[in-house]
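Subject: sequence -> structure tokens, single chain

Hey, anyone have a minute? Need the predicted structure for the following. Not urgent.
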Amino acid sequence: MKPAPFEYFAPKIVDEALAHLAEYGYDAKVLAGGQSLIPMMNFRLVQPAVIVDINNIDELFHIRENDEGGLSIGAMARHNQVETSSLVADRAALISDAMPHIATVQVRSRGTFGGSIAHADPSAELTAVSVALEGSFLLRNQKGERWVPANEFFAGLFTSLLEPDELLIEAKFPAMPERTGSALVEVARRPHDFALVGVAAVVTLGEGNRCRQARLVFFSVGDGPVVAHQAVELLKGKELSPESMRAAAETAAKRDVDPGSDIHATAEYRRHLAGVLSFRALTKAYERARGIG
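Reply:
Had a minute. Here:
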């Protein structure tokens, strides 16, 4: 199929894009990488009257160190730029872990970091990773701008706090504390498929290899990123061991996630995967925090 007729704008500066979004509101869609929007338009699942193509806005393509020593990634940074960036690997290794899991090389050559975030797909790696890294997103419209924490941004299934007249400008991630390790693991039916279940783990160690802080965030088990609050509470202040991490993983699977069934997997199988993958992710993050691997 082909998309329904639409009006097309290709602004070269952010202010021009914001003017179009302010004028057309819900009738407009932003075109970034187009890896989700274009197929949806071709199947006429969405029929925007206006397309605002932001591929010519150079200021949205950056990957740089921010003022706090962390990482800032522009909304239009291509997945393959992020995947191969040494700065990303140094400042936010969890993002580097996630990138090879995103679709195929061809998709990553066009897909964008901000596009994945704004799409708010509950099966997307970057949604969970952004929450696990305590990231925040800069949203701007003609009236001003605001920073929204990642753990508040994702409001539901393919739904975010991004308003129709707002543009996602960049994602910001704080500097990681010393002795912090991270890991992302997932299971999919085939390479490059959406994950049946995935989890991002971040572990920070204190004295005596005790857990000072931990975060465990799932994707593909709900309407958005699912934070395993009860599981990480079991780890804080304790010396990490296979037994303690396995107990936390079991708690995550039994108490923190409530997956559904579909044609790809049952809820019971997803819950089993949540436990297995949590243990693997925590173990890998712990080893990295200790400087192993």
